[in-house]
Structure formats: structure tokens, C-alpha cells
Amino acid sequence: MSVASLFVKLAGGQQVVGGYTIAPYAGGNVSGSYTPDPLNGNYQYFTNNGAITFNAPATDCAIDFLITNGATAGAITFSGYTVNSNVGEPFTTTNTNKFILSVRRINGTSTYVVKALQ
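RE: above sequence
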């Protein structure tokens, strides 16, 4: 086995055996306008501490967010997404409620789905 065969190549095409652990990105307290940044990783979390306009990502990506409502949680609205009338479960503003928000942008089209965790 050559040393070069031990590395994952940018071009892909290799079989990965085993797994990886993920260190999620801590986004802190969020309110106001927010645009997802895939360079922070595929798993991110933050506290909703005010009304949020969640903008579509600027580049193709797939990111899952764990959102925990803080004491001053506000409504979350979305801008720039393509969705139908069913985007999952509704957000609430109840303190400590948690949600998984899955965001995808593929070939310039952004969409999302929401899963309530209570």
C-alpha cells in the first residue's frame, strides 16, 4: 500500500472505511438577519434570542442546525428558499424548545425542513 493511497483526495472516488466524529460549530446567540455559512461545518447550533430572518445560503451546501430557544426567542422567517406548504413542524418561541433545521442548496436552489424536538 502506498502512502498516497492513505489520503482522501479532493477529487473523491475512494472508499472510506470507519467513521469520523464531528465537532459542531457553536453559533452563539442569533437574532436579526442570518445567512448560513457552510465553512463553519455541516453541523451547527445556536440560541434563538430574537426574531430571525434566515437567508438562503450563498453557495451549494447541506447544513443541519440545532436551534434552542432562549428566553427572548423570536419568530423565524425564511428568505430566498423554494418550498411547498409542508416544511415540517412549526417553530415555537417557548423558552428551551429545540428544533433541527436542515438546510440544503443544490445547483442554486435552496430549501429547508424543520423537526421539533419536544
